[in-house]
Amino acid sequence: MLRNISLRSRIFISMIFWVVIAFVLIASVTIYQYSEQNRDYHAERMERKEEQIKQSIDLALQKTTFPVTTENLGHIFRDEIYEIALVQNINFNIYDLEGELIKSSRPKFEVDSISTCLDAEVLNNLASSPNKRYVEQKSAAGYSYQASYTYIDDKRFKHVGILNLPYFEDNSFNDKELKEILLRLTGAYLLLMLLAIGLAYFISKYITRSLQTISDRLNQTDLTKRNEKIIVENPSEEIGKLITSYNEMIDELEISAAKLAKGEREQAWREMAKQVAHEIKNPLTPMRLSVQSFERKFDPNDPDIAKKISEFSKTLIQQIDTMSSIASAFSNFANMPAQQNETLNVVKIVKMAVDIFDENYIHFSSEEEEIIAKLDRTQLIRVVTNLVKNATQAIVNVDTPHVLVTVSKDGDFVKMTVEDNGVGISMESKDKVFEPKFTTKTSGMGLGLGMVKNIVETYKGTINFTTEPGKGTIFTVRFPIANDGGST
After folding, report:
1. Considering the entire predicted model, what is its pTM?
2. CB neighbours (10 Å) of residue 296?
3. CB 388 within 8 A of CB 362
4. How far apart are CA 235 and CA 477, in angstroms?
5. Which DSSP state fits 355?
6. Which of 78, 128, 369, 442 sits in a 20 to 30 Å window from 289, CA-based?
7. Are the CB atoms for 386 and 452 separated by under 8 Å?
8. What is the mean pLDDT of residues 385-405?
């Protein structure tokens, strides 16, 4: 999914993402720190309370007149236990060494909820503890608390009892303080988030501005025309290298395009020169032979000399006419048709062009009497005559030749078709039909259809064809219909 996101969006999202991650990490560390702080605080406080109670118990054992034994602990602390609990503001219990409850500072009605006998696990853990102290986590009435166990010693450090101190943690103050800190932290990060969004937007826009300029120029790069170089003020090192590479590429493209255009022009002129030379040589050969033959056979005293001179002249004139037609064909192909944009009745002009041909198998048909388009009369006639001439040359060996020229409306276009039932166009020749110099005929230069396509496209028209070898071909020409009326 991220692959389809723009670089600007990636930079923007990344900056916001890291701000959020930073907030989560700091909040987590803050909560963890408060948790550790609370744990250490309560552990130290419980140890202090325990030590204070032990000091009070030791003081009571020093003042008592009873022998300090396990059996006398109940008598010794009959009233003292309440005074100590009141002074230290915490309740505690005293057990014998077997884990049986001796005395508790809790009121009488709460004593029933206290365990009267310690578990063997507690006694074993306490006995095996290096510092003779054991703390366990317990729960009562839905609340969790810690319970510490330590020995009560006499003056000779002999164990006479077990001190149990239930310690309930009061975290209300710390929790309230933590909430306040998290609330302030959230507010600060919300403000930081807004600043980060604005900063991310401007930074991403600044970083990608040069890239966007380069992208736009790359999209506008056209090999057929001169391209402008990219100029960006104070670019970064990476962007500067990219811009330099692009500008160098543009220079190389211009040099290559100039060389290519020059080469193409030279090649075109070479091909055209070869074609012209080839076509001119064709009539020159029979002209030379005719002159040589006439020179050998010329006899001023020959009674048929006038007839022979006439025939010789006729042959030369035919060859000269052929050369003239060659020159005209190349001239017509080379010249782009002038856009006269006359308002013409296409039906009338096409019919007039078809009527030039005398063959009775050439027919014209149109259901419309008038279709108006802006074209050049002479160029339109050239299109029709060339297409009809090609059709007549394609049906030379057909028993019942037929050529049909039609004109009709096709939406916003005037459509002209020239259909014949000739030999058709082979599959390998289809892509070359409109190329200059291409021809399937034994005579001619193959410039006719190239010139026709040139004229049609000049007037924003289209030309195409369908063919079936052995059955015929249909050429279709479309020109845009004029919006305004009037005919010529």
Report:
1. 0.38
2. 7
3. yes
4. 54
5. T
6. 442
7. yes
8. 87
Which 8-state DSSP code applies to residue 228? P
Could you tell me if 108 and 81 are in contact, meaning their C-beta atoms sit under 8 angstroms apart?
no
Task: Centre a 10 Å sphere on the Cβ of residue 19 and count the other Cβ atoms it contains.
Answer: 18
Averaged pLDDT score across all residues of the chain:
78
**Cα dihedral value 362, 366, 372, 376, nearest 10:** -10
Cβ neighbours for 275, distance < 8 A, ≥ 6 positions apart: 330, 437, 445
Q: DSSP state, 117?
A: B
In Å, the largest CA–CA distance within the chain is 186
d(CA 474, CA 419): 4
> What are 322-381's pLDDT values in tens digits?
667 666 666 655 554 455 678 889 999 999 888 888 788 999 999 889 999 988 888 888
Q: How many CB atoms within 10 Å of residue 183?
A: 10
SS3 162: strand
Query: In this structure, which amino acid lies at residue 476?
Result: T
Please say whether the beta carbons of 473 and 463 come within 8 A: no
Mean pLDDT throughout 383-390?
88
CA distance 9 to 63: 80
Q: Is 94 helix (H, G, I), strand (E, B) or coil?
A: strand
Q: How many residues does the chain have?
A: 488
CB 146 within 8 A of CB 169: yes
**pLDDT band at residue 250 using 50, 70 and 90 as cut-offs:** confident
Q: Which of 62-66, 139-143, 413-417 has the lowest mean pLDDT?
A: 139-143
In one letter, which amino acid is 121?
A: E
Q: What is the DSSP string of 406-439?
A: EEEEETTEEEEEEEE-S----GGGGGGTTSTT--
The residues near 411 (Cβ < 8 Å, ≥ 6 apart) are: none
How far is Cα 8 from Cα 26, in angstroms, rounded to an integer?
27
Look at residue 108 and tell me whether its pLDDT is greater than 70.
no
